[in-house]
Amino acid sequence: MFFIFGYVFFSRYCWNKNSMGSLCVPLIVSVLFAGLRGNVGTDTFAYKTYFNSIGDTSEIISKGLVFAFEPGFILYATIIRFIINSDQFFIFSLSCLYGILLYKILQKIEEKDLFFLFYISAFYIMFNLNLLRFGISLLFIGNAYLMMLKEDKKYIYLLVLGISFHYAGVLAIMFFIKRKDFIKYFVVLFVFIGIAYAFIITKINSYFIDLLSLTGSFKFDFGLILEFLIVVALCLFNRRLQSKKNILFFFIYYLFRWFSYLFDMLNRFSYVLGFVLFLFLFTKIFKEKSKALIIILILFNLYRTLSFINNSDAAMTSLIDDESGFAGLFSQTAWLPYKFFWQ
Q: Which of 73, 272, 263 is nearest to 173 (CA)?
C-alpha cells in the first residue's frame, strides 16, 4: 500500500503525470497483492469454502449457503469452477476482475490519480480482501454511473450486473433516475422508507432492548465528523456539487453511516451511496483548495483503514481468550501477518 502511494505521488508531482500509463504499475501491484494472498481477510476463507462446495448440494445446504449469494456471483463462481477447479484461482480471478473494472473507471474520469489513491485508502482493503462480491458490485455500478453521465445507454447492462453480484446495489438506482425532480425525490423517499421498514420495523423485537439503551451503545465517530466537514467544504468550493439531489444523497449517506452500528446492512447501503457520490467528485479536475482537502481525506482514510485491520485482529484475539474455539477460525481469517497463498 505504501509502495502504491509513493509511486503515484512521484508520478504526479515529480514526473507531472496524471494519466493511465502512470497508474498501470500500482494498479497491477494492487491486483497481485489481493489475488495472490492466502486466507487473509475475514471473508476470504468463506468464499473459498463456498467455491469448493459448488456442485455438492448436500454440503451447500449443511453449511447454510443456499441463499447466501446472489445469482450473478453464483454464475461467475460456477463458470470459474468449470474452467479451473482451484479456489486460489477463483480469488485471483476476482482480483483481476476488480482490476479491469477499476481501470475502466479511471479511463472515464479526469482526476485519475487522486481517485485511485482515494479508492485504495477508503475501499481497497474492504472490497478486495473482504467484501469481495460487494466490491465487484460497486465497481460495475460505478462504471454504469459514469456511462450514464456520458449518455451511453448501455449502462443498464452494467447496472444489472452490479445488482446481480450484491442486492445492496439496488439502492444505486436512485442515481439513475432522470425524471422531474418531484419524481426523483419520491423514489428516494420510497426507497428510504422501504429500507427503514426492512431493517427497523421487521427487526424491532430483536433490537428492542438495544433501542432502549442507545446512549450506552452510541459511539462518537470523530472521523465521520471530519469527513463530513471536508465534504461540506468541497461542496462550497465546487458549485457542481451543490445540487439538491447531491445534498439529499449526502444527507442520507451520513445518516446511514451514523446509525450503521445498529444494523450492519445500513453500512452496506452507506457504501453504495458513498462510492457513487465520491466517484462523482473525481469526474472533473479539482481546484487547488479542493485537491488539498482530498489529500487530507485520503491520508485520514488510510489511517482509519490501518486501524481497522489492527482492531479487527485484536477483537478476534479477545474472542479467543474467552472461547478457545475461535482459534481455528482466526488462523484462517486474520488480517495480519499478510500471507501469500503458498506460505
A: 272
Whole-angstrom CA distances from 89 to 52, 77, 131 are: 12, 11, 17
Give residue-wise pLDDT tens across range 37-79.
988 887 888 899 889 888 766 655 555 555 678 889 999 999 9
Q: Yes or no: say if 294 and 109 are a contact pair by the CB < 8 Å rule.
A: no
Residue pair 35/96 in contact by the 8 Å Cβ criterion:
yes
Spatial neighbors of 192 by CB under 8 A, at least 6 apart, are: 252
Rounded Cα–Cα distance for residues 86 and 51 (Å): 8
DSSP 293-336: HHHHHHHHHHHHHHHHHHHHHHHHHHHHHH-TTHHHHHHHH--S
pTM of the model: 0.85
The angle at the Cα of 233, spanning 229 to 235, to the nearest 5 degrees, equals 115
| Nearest partner of 127 among 227, 46, 34, 37, judged by Cα | 34
Q: Write phi, then psi, for 40 (nearest 5 degrees).
A: -115, 130
- Tell me the C-alpha distance between 320 and 315, whole Å: 9
Q: Quickly state the pLDDT bin for 214 (edges 50, 70, 90).
A: very low
Angstrom distance (rounded) from CA 230 to CA 294: 8
Tell me 77's DSSP state: H
Q: All 3 cell numbers of residue 254?
A: 451520513
What CA–CA distances, in Å, run from 24 to 12, 99, 106? 13, 10, 10
Question: Is 330 within 8 Å of 312 (Cβ atoms)?
Answer: no
Residues 6+ apart with CB under 8 A from 182: none
- Distance, in Å, from the CA atom of 44 to the CA atom of 37, rounded to the nearest integer, reads 9
State the Rg of the chain over Cα.
Answer: 20
| Alpha-carbon distances of 210 from 140, 217, 255, rounded to whole Å | 36, 7, 18
Q: Answer yes or no: are the C-beta atoms of 199 and 269 closer than 8 Å.
A: no
